[in-house]
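FORM 12-B: Structure-to-Sequence Request
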């Protein structure tokens, strides 16, 4: 199964130079990584852009979770009344906007990281947008398909009344779904239909690999955003 390794995450972190998020990733424990940090002024710019991506992602996932609730929060209902539109339409508009912003922001970060990797295959804008869309979908719905993110499943073996539970054997209680290369290939093929100028998908291995890198960027962006929020509170 494909999964974003800590090595991949740190490699992405190094592409941004010295950022606050590296400490959150435990990178400061490595003397080698500390020595590789550049401390250049543009590092701060990329940290800000990463934090912005983190905010886009959090906003997008938050809207999705709100849309799934049976009782929509009052502010959205008042907004819908003011606009004279169904609250579902308001939420769908917000979700679409947040998704578009997140995809565009992540595509920009993918370009930045790959540009700093000498042996990495460069992606064009359409390819970066496609990879970003797949990576964001994975992040937004990364719950275990077996336990639905609960980490445990009922044990029905001859038990009546309240059912005891056992650790989910699929995710081993980690709550998350690990996406395989096959799943990513399928997602890339499906997402390719959303672009007006679809790309040639005869070789998808490099796109699958780019999704792994993109998940590392997402992880870094969320950490950066969290640190910025904690510092400003």
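FORM 12-B RESPONSE
SEQUENCE OUT:
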């Amino acid at each position: 199964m494909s999964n974003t390794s800590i090595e991949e995450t740190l490699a992405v972190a190094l592409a941004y130079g010295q950022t606050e998020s590296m400490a959150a990733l435990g990178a400061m424990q490595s003397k080698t990584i500390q020595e590789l940090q550049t401390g250049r002024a543009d590092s701060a710019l990329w940290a800000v852009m990463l934090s912005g991506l983190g905010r886009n992602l959090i906003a997008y996932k938050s809207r999705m979770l709100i849309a799934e609730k049976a009782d929509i929060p009052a502010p959205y209902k008042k907004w819908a009344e003011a606009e004279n539109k169904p609250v579902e339409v308001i939420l769908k508009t917000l979700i679409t906007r947040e998704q578009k912003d997140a995809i565009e922001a992540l595509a920009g970060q993918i370009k930045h990281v790959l540009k700093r990797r000498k042996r990495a295959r460069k992606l064009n804008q359409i390819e970066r947008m496609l990879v970003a869309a797949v990576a964001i979908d994975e992040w937004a719905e990364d719950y275990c398909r077996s336990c639905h993110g609960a980490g445990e499943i009922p044990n029905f073996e001859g038990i009546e009344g309240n059912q005891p539970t056992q650790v989910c054997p699929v995710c081993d209680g980690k709550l998350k779904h690990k996406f395989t290369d096959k799943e990513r290939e399928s997602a890339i093929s499906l997402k390719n239909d959303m672009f007006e100028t679809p790309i040639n998908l005869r070789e998808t291995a490099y796109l699958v690999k780019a999704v792994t890198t993109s998940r590392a960027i997402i992880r870094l962006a969320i950490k950066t955003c969290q640190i910025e929020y904690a510092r400003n509170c």
